[in-house]
């Protein structure tokens, strides 16, 4: 038995295009280290240098957000299903337009918009 | 209350109804575990977003940001646009909605009927295209007012001042509150209020997990977390896939006669998870969840009939919540 890990489209370059990979570990931290040994660079996309989960990455164990289960210390068991997703909000539009518009709002009604 | 001076005054005060058939059975002698649905589809335009729209417009008026005849610009995948369109019409503003083209036909028709103008952003272009669209519109019309529901405190405050107190009044024994996570306004506002008033209450978020198209970012750094979001308000957060959301949506109409949109199916899925856990733990639970809208606007998706696999396919790439 192993832990099944679902990889989002934008991170499949690290898994040779695979949607689902398998790994093992007692915690999420262990699992990501194990995955990185076969999919080099994957861990670095999910965990910051300070050792926390990336702000725009959501990881779910059996459909529950790991940030409420101890984050990287979340306990895992064989047979668990882990899903990694980029953070998007409020329907697909939110994540994209909101960033642009928030910047517009922050710079004032009449200021020009500069969004990278 | 059954008489109001205007439609705007009829916002909120929605019924809370018990779901005795869907509530889990508990062993003989064990404390009861009950599910309750807050029927936000009973608001003036048929969704929970009426509360936020009214509060955001009122706050902008009070701050002097909105004057009669002004234009409101809002990115929305549907319900907020419909609510704002109604409020804008009654308060004398023009509304321009920017929305992805992969929303259901009913939402577009409704918006146009209310007099809103719509600018579509291509679904397939992913975030980059949508950012470009929003950038362009904002730059071309710097005098348009964006209420910006993802970062507007009046969105969450609407729920702190109305949804939360209504729930506590109708269900003083509440132990869990479950709602969908989008702008996060409903959960932040209601959650904060209930945490202040009810010791040990659990605030549970259910977020829709869409098809892959929707997560078509070019890289992780293009992700977005709404400014309103504060994780410390939540106790748990579930990701609910399309299949589970459809299954629960159908179950709700089959078992309890409640015809709801798919986001409510996702919310029910999370509500049932915590309800069943309470049964296993032998604890009393009164789980209230939000019915954010009815199913009418989603009939054209075809996902109410056929097999679950058909429904899943019908909703692939659609914004069903």
Automatic annotation (TrEMBL), chain A:
Protein name: MoaD/ThiS family protein
Pfam families cross-referenced by the UniProt entry: ThiS
Stored NCBIfam families: moaD_arch
InterPro entries the UniProt entry points to: Beta-grasp_dom_sf, MoaD_arc-typ, Mopterin_synth/thiamin_S_b, Sulfur_Carrier/Prot_Modifier, ThiS/MoaD-like
SUPFAM superfamilies attached to this UniProt entry: MoaD/ThiS
From TrEMBL, chain B:
Pathway given in the UniProt record: Amino-acid biosynthesis
Annotated SUPFAM superfamilies: Tryptophan synthase beta subunit-like PLP-dependent enzymes
Cofactor: pyridoxal 5'-phosphate
Entry EC no(s): 2.5.1.113
Ranges where the Tryptophan synthase beta chain-like PALP domain occurs: 9-293
Pfam families xrefs: PALP (PF00291)
Domain of life: Bacteria
Catalytic activity: [CysO sulfur-carrier protein]-C-terminal-Gly-aminoethanethioate + O-phospho-L-serine + H(+) = [CysO sulfur-carrier protein]-Gly-NH-CH2-C(O)-S-L-Cys + phosphate
Keywords associated with the record: Amino-acid biosynthesis, Pyridoxal phosphate, Transferase
Keyword NADP: no
Family: Belongs to the cysteine synthase/cystathionine beta-synthase family.
Designated name of the protein: O-phosphoserine sulfhydrylase
Species assigned in the record: Micromonospora radicis
Organism ancestry: Bacteria, Bacillati, Actinomycetota, Actinomycetes, Micromonosporales
